């Protein structure tokens, strides 16, 4: 499970992160709803854990917008003094669940697990290129015409993030996040190595464009 933490209070956000990491849940931190949506569009998160008020929007608004993404992400609210009227609005919104700020981390983890279990799972890990090539993101197997190849789990995670980006340029840091999550990460230059290997497996550089000074963008068309 990879969680996206959304909280404008940096101190609280890092406290959340430390608690989740202690429960072996990797996570990323962002301070605003707009940033959270940007991250959720480009990377594959399993759940969003948000404070009730994010400064630029409410957690309920973030939940409504994240539910309309091409890959919807469940959202759980975690915060102190959740007012009764907010709870009523939560039940009528796209928020998956909520828990009081005083909740024990075990309860929070349980609610996150329940939230992710409610999401409809993809029926297949296979992505099909319209010209007939396929990639199995679970096994890493690549078929390009009559040729076959294989991606490592990290290479498959990076390719999936690029595909989920929907044509948006992903920075090298975003690509590393897709491969390593909250774990210790190598230097950014390793991204060039990963992309080179993915391009080789895909039969050439055409599907992954280098945008100098910014990062990489996927140019293929996937079903």
From TrEMBL:
<keyword id="KW-0804">Transcription</keyword>
<feature type="domain" description="Response regulatory">
    <location>
        <begin position="2"/>
        <end position="116"/>
    </location>
</feature>
<keyword id="KW-0805">Transcription regulation</keyword>
<dbReference type="InterPro" id="IPR001867">
    <property type="entry name" value="OmpR/PhoB-type_DNA-bd"/>
</dbReference>
<keyword id="KW-0597">Phosphoprotein</keyword>
<keyword id="KW-0902">Two-component regulatory system</keyword>
<dbReference type="InterPro" id="IPR036388">
    <property type="entry name" value="WH-like_DNA-bd_sf"/>
</dbReference>
<dbReference type="GO" id="GO:0000156">
    <property type="term" value="F:phosphorelay response regulator activity"/>
</dbReference>
<dbReference type="InterPro" id="IPR016032">
    <property type="entry name" value="Sig_transdc_resp-reg_C-effctor"/>
</dbReference>
<keyword id="KW-0238">DNA-binding</keyword>
<dbReference type="Pfam" id="PF00486">
    <property type="entry name" value="Trans_reg_C"/>
</dbReference>
<dbReference type="InterPro" id="IPR039420">
    <property type="entry name" value="WalR-like"/>
</dbReference>
<dbReference type="InterPro" id="IPR001789">
    <property type="entry name" value="Sig_transdc_resp-reg_receiver"/>
</dbReference>
<dbReference type="InterPro" id="IPR011006">
    <property type="entry name" value="CheY-like_superfamily"/>
</dbReference>
<dbReference type="GO" id="GO:0000976">
    <property type="term" value="F:transcription cis-regulatory region binding"/>
</dbReference>
<protein>
    <submittedName>
        <fullName>Cell cycle response regulator CtrA</fullName>
    </submittedName>
</protein>
<dbReference type="GO" id="GO:0006355">
    <property type="term" value="P:regulation of DNA-templated transcription"/>
</dbReference>
<dbReference type="GO" id="GO:0032993">
    <property type="term" value="C:protein-DNA complex"/>
</dbReference>
<feature type="DNA-binding region" description="OmpR/PhoB-type">
    <location>
        <begin position="121"/>
        <end position="220"/>
    </location>
</feature>
<dbReference type="GO" id="GO:0005829">
    <property type="term" value="C:cytosol"/>
</dbReference>
<feature type="domain" description="OmpR/PhoB-type">
    <location>
        <begin position="121"/>
        <end position="220"/>
    </location>
</feature>
């Amino acid at each position: 499970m990879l969680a996206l933490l959304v909280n404008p209070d940096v101190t609280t956000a890092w406290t959340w992160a430390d608690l989740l990491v202690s429960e072996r849940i990797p996570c990323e931190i962002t301070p605003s709803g707009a940033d959270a949506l940007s991250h959720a569009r480009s990377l594959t998160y399993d759940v969003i854990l948000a404070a009730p008020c994010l400064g630029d929007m409410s957690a309920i608004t973030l939940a409504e917008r994240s539910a309309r993404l091409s890959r919807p992400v469940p959202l759980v609210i975690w915060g102190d003094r959740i007012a009764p009227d907010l709870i009523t609005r939560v039940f009528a919104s796209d928020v998956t669940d909520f828990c009081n700020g005083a909740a024990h981390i075990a309860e929070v983890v349980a609610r996150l697990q329940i939230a992710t279990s409610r999401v409809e799972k993809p029926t297949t890990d296979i992505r099909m290129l319209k010209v007939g090539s396929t990639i199995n993101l679970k096994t890493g197997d690549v078929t390009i015409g009559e040729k076959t190849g294989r991606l490592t789990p990290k290479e498959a995670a990076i390719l999936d993030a690029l595909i989920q980006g929907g044509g948006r340029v992903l920075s090298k840091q975003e690509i590393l996040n897709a491969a390593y999550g909250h774990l210790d990460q190598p230097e950014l230059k390793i991204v060039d190595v990963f992309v080179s290997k993915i391009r080789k497996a895909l039969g050439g550089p055409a599907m992954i464009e280098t945008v100098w000074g910014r990062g990489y963008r996927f140019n293929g068309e996937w079903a």
